[in-house]
């Protein structure tokens, strides 16, 4: 379990670094403590989203099925989370966003098998639940990111005025 937590945190920090490093490069006036704080906060948020992905897919599968699934739930295992870490490492925009996306699709396909086995839903139905869960979490995180950027930009303009 501690290996899974470590890998999820590593994936979260790596994913956050892929978003924060280009921002820090474009704004050379950002102090190191601010960048480090953004990296830690972003890494924790990304790790939490990665952690929620199987749980959200399981919840969607429960909604699709007419009866309660017989399994105990879907959780990350080291062999399922390892490709996620690779996908997060490739999150840097200059290293290939298409490859990054393809790896996330691969990770989702890897989650679909255990979800299908645990729920009896069928692979395509489980894959749809995983895809909808991943897309929904991604959209939610992106909305929060944009809101934080908008609020921080507004606060920055007010403090200079």
TrEMBL record:
Record keyword Transmembrane present: yes
Transmembrane segments: 34-60, 80-109, 121-141
Alphabetic keyword roster: Membrane, Transmembrane, Transmembrane helix
Protein origin, superkingdom: Bacteria
Name listed for the protein in its UniProt record: Integral membrane protein
Lineage: Bacteria, Bacillati, Actinomycetota, Actinomycetes, Kitasatosporales
């Amino acid at each position: 379990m501690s290996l899974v937590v470590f890998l999820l945190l590593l994936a979260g920090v790596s994913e956050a670094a892929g978003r924060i490093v280009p921002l820090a490069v474009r704004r050379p006036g950002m102090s190191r403590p601010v960048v480090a704080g953004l990296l830690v906060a972003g890494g924790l948020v990304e790790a939490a989203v990665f952690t929620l992905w199987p749980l959200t897919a399981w919840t969607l599968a429960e909604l699709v099925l007419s009866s309660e699934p017989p399994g105990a739930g879907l959780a990350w295992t080291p062999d399922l989370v390892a490709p996620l870490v690779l996908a997060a490492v490739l999150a840097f925009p200059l290293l290939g966003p298409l490859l990054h996306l393809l790896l996330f699709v691969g990770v989702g396909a890897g989650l679909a098998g255990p979800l299908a086995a645990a729920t009896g839903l069928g692979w395509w139905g489980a894959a749809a639940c995983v895809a909808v869960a991943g897309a929904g979490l991604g959209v939610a995180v992106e909305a929060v990111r944009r809101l934080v950027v908008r609020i921080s930009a507004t606060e920055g303009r007010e403090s200079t005025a």
